[in-house]
Amino acid sequence: MYTDASGGLVAVAVDAARGFSVGTPRPLFSPPGGAFDWDVTADGERFLIRVPVVKSSSIPLNVVSHWSAGLKR
After folding, report:
1. What whole-number distance in Å separates Cα of residue 31 and Cα of residue 18?
2. What is the DSSP string of 18-32?
3. Could you state, in order of their start, the residue ranges of all structural domains in the chain?
4. For tag attachment on the chain, is the N or C end more exposed, with fewer CB atoms within 10 Å?
């Protein structure tokens, strides 16, 4: 697996059993946000991609203390 000129991930089958031959490159996908830090899990089933955190508008957080006092018994 490698990245192409546009930054997309490309897979290539490799056969080393009888010499060395490679298959046809197969485009997989382009990582979001142009991420270039990536790896594949040991089982080959998932990609781990580090992407920059995008700050969005903040959502207010309301903390209510002594909330149990407001419950009707």
Report:
1. 34
2. TS-EE---EEEEPPG
3. 2-53
4. C
**Global confidence as pTM:** 0.51
What token pair was written down for 62? 């309301």
pLDDT tens sequence across 15-40: 888 889 989 989 888 877 666 678 88
Q: At 58, phi and psi to the nearest 5?
A: -80, 145
* Cα 73 from Cα 65, distance rounded (Å): 18
Is the separation of the CB atoms in 48 and 40 below 8 Å?
yes
Which residue matches tokens 């700050």? 55
SS3 51: coil
